[in-house]
From TrEMBL:
Quaternary state and interactors: Part of the small subunit (SSU) processome, composed of more than 70 proteins and the RNA chaperone small nucleolar RNA (snoRNA) U3. Interacts with DDX21, NCL, NOP2 and EBNA1BP2.
Biased composition (Basic residues): 14-26, 47-59, 66-82
Biological role: Scaffold component of the nucleolar structure. Required for localization of DDX21 and NCL to the granular compartment of the nucleolus. Part of the small subunit (SSU) processome, first precursor of the small eukaryotic ribosomal subunit. During the assembly of the SSU processome in the nucleolus, many ribosome biogenesis factors, an RNA chaperone and ribosomal proteins associate with the nascent pre-rRNA and work in concert to generate RNA folding, modifications, rearrangements and cleavage as well as targeted degradation of pre-ribosomal RNA by the RNA exosome.
Keyword line: Nucleus, Phosphoprotein, Repeat, WD repeat
Gene name per UniProt: WDR46
Stated name of the protein: WD repeat-containing protein 46
Major localisation: nucleus
WD-type repeats, residues: 356-390
Organism name: Panthera pardus
Location in the cell: Nucleus, Nucleolus
Length: 612
């Protein structure tokens, strides 16, 4: 007969199943070896109450000198244990990420957003300056990678028009395009019959939401062309030659027969600028807040609309100025003249930056694409030419038209539209910043009157045409950028957002003196002027203030400052500087050409002694 053993001190008494503590359930993200890995003992847990009693029974202070709580050897802080083989990172579900780290970005996509030319090496400068340049280059590279990743979030894609089985897209009419697109896009094609006050000039705002147009007989109106809501409509009782929106849709300028007038979106006249008289064409530079006017008297005037002052009034000395456009890339104004030349102007210079001979006859129209790479011109010789503006100013392609193009305009994606009489032709390239192909037109449309104004709507595949019969809105697939920057040009912004944007734009206004052909030259150092300034400073002071002071050894004690030791130390420093100069000169010199091998001959010659 078996007997139950008596409970001893070492063996804890057994508890009932109901009184036993339940085991903590293991979660799905916890492993079974969690407790054992942490170093927990596999034995039964001790009694917490008994441990607390033992802690209170320990003496606080002991007078025994042999047993001291301070050890004689200095105790060093223990280093935390490092994991020799760290396992793969796991998520809460316990699954391992099959693609750890950030997603790779293609080099071609990141290069599109990079603004630093890595082909140029960093200059030999001080270590502190070189470190700053390297940090700036690393930040620029990181920003370009982030921009390339965010490109995947763009919701829209550019449109296109393709013919079936070799069909010519120029034969596709606007009626066919309207029937094929959705209702919202079809509503963007409309005609305004305004024969009583034509011909018309028109202009879209920077956001692409508002349209302003003015007729030759004094009719001026602005409207939200998407919702067809009229903002204002007036008759100035004077001939209107051109119209332009200013930095926002709340203000627009009208070039009337005599003077320049500024109106608000309610049609109220705010300013009458009499110094700008007999204006023929208007252009607005948004980043500089400059309104450029070309007058009948041959003057090019720059008006700063933020302060209301005329920055520059330049005499072109070329007669009547009725052909003008701007370069969106560098804000340079292009003027076409009757002698077949196109001149490039900046308010910082009284003479033109460059002159290009484009046609044998007078220039009728000029247009520059959004990247500032190509310029299209048309003249009285019925020639349509495209020039390269990247320093060469050479014609890239030319085409003879049955009628000379009187109006030219580029879209945001590089499409070129030309108005010839009552016909509008559009040529397309391979994509953005590509050369338009002049061999065959992309689209063709015939109007009810002669063309007097062309303008592509920003961020919409729409071309606005002003003619003698009114206003026509054409659908041109693939003309505009499909995505817009909400912080720069937001078509859906509220009045409060527009006001905040105006304050920010005024704080970031670019001075008019910085307008030049190559904007990247502003970030470079003018080494020649810097050296000339340094020479003039040395001549004025009589000495070089930046020259390095001669080495003077510090005095030492215990007989080490004798004359011989001082001379020895000076000579040692001079030798080191001399070695550094020689080493730098050897690095800068090009590698010497290898000596040519002597030609091997069968028999030696008596003249070989003179060969070296």
């Amino acid at each position: 007969m078996e007997t139950v053993p008596k409970p001893s001190r070492d063996v804890p008494p057994k508890k009932n199943r109901l009184q036993a503590k339940k085991k903590k359930p293991r979660r799905y993200w916890e492993e079974e070896t969690t407790l054992t890995a942490a170093g927990a003992s596999p034995g039964p847990p001790g009694n917490k109450k008994r441990n607390r009693e033992l802690r209170h029974q320990r003496p606080k202070n002991t007078n025994n000198p042999k047993k001291s709580r301070f050890s004689r050897k200095p105790q060093l802080p223990k280093k935390p244990r490092e994991r020799r083989n760290p396992g793969p990172q796991r998520s809460l579900s316990g699954a391992q990420d099959p693609f750890p780290g950030p997603a790779p970005v293609p080099v071609e996509v990141a290069q599109k957003f990079c603004r630093i030319d890595k082909s140029k090496k960093l200059p030999h400068s001080k270590s502190k300056t070189r470190t700053r340049l390297e940090v700036a280059e690393a930040e620029e590279q990181e920003i370009s990678i982030k921009a390339a990743r965010s490109e995947l979030l763009l919701a829209e894609e550019p449109g296109f028009l393709e013919g079936e089985d070799g069909e010519d897209t120029a034969k596709i009419r606007q009626v066919d395009i309207v029937e094929a697109v959705d209702i919202a896009s079809a509503a963007k094609h409309f005609d305004l019959n305004l024969r009583q006050f034509g011909p018309y000039r028109l202009n879209y705002s920077r956001t692409g939401r508002h349209l302003a147009f003015g007729g030759r007989r004094g009719h001026v109106a602005t409207l939200d062309w998407v919702t067809k809501r009229l903002m204002c409509e007036i008759n100035v009782m004077e001939a209107v030659r051109d119209i332009r929106f200013l930095h926002s849709e709340a203000l627009f300028a009208v070039a009337q027969n005599r003077w320049l007038h500024i109106y608000d979106n309610q049609g109220i006249e705010l300013h009458c600028i009499r110094r700008c008289d007999r204006v023929m064409r208007l252009e607005f530079l948004p980043f500089h807040f400059l309104l450029a006017t070309a007058s009948e008297t041959g003057f090019l005037t720059y008006l700063d609309v933020s302060v209301g002052k005329i920055v520059a009034a330049l005499n072109a000395r070329a007669g009547r100025l009725d052909v003008m456009t701007k370069n969106p890339y560098n804000a340079v104004i292009h003027l076409g003249h009757s002698n077949g030349t196109v001149s490039l102007w900046s308010p910082a210079m009284k003479e033109p930056l460059a002159k290009i001979l484009c046609h044998r006859g007078g220039v009728r129209a000029v247009a520059v694409d959004s990247t500032g790479t190509y310029m299209a011109t048309s003249g009285l010789d019925h020639q349509l030419k495209i020039f390269d503006l990247r320093g060469t100013f050479q014609p890239l392609s030319a085409r003879t038209l049955p009628q000379g193009a009187g109006h030219l305009v580029f879209s945001q994606r590089g499409l070129l539209a030309a108005g010839m009489g009552d016909v509008v032709n559009i040529w397309a390239g391979q994509g953005k910043a590509s050369l338009p192909s002049l061999e065959q037109p992309y689209l063709t449309h015939r109007l009810s009157g002669h063309v007097h104004g062309l303008h592509f709507c920003p961020f919409e595949d729409v071309l606005g045409v002003g003619h003698t019969g009114g206003i026509t809105s054409m659908l041109v697939p693939g003309a505009a950028e499909p995505n817009f920057d909400g912080l720069e040009s937001n078509p859906y912004r509220s009045q409060k957002q527009r006001q905040e944007w105006e304050v920010k734009a005024l704080l970031e206004k670019v001075p008019a003196e910085l307008i030049c052909l190559d904007p990247r030259a502003l970030a470079e150092v003018d080494v020649i002027s810097l050296e000339q300034e340094k020479k003039e400073r040395i001549e004025r002071l009589g000495y070089d203030p930046e020259a390095k002071a001669p080495f003077q050894p510090k005095p030492k004690q215990k007989g080490r400052s004798s004359t011989a030791s001082l001379v020895k130390r000076k000579r040692k420093v001079m030798d080191e500087e001399h070695r550094d100069k020689v080493r730098q000169s050897l690095e800068q010199q090009p590698q010497k050409q290898e000596k040519k091998a002597k030609p091997t001959r069968a028999r030696p010659s008596a003249l070989d002694r003179f060969l070296r």
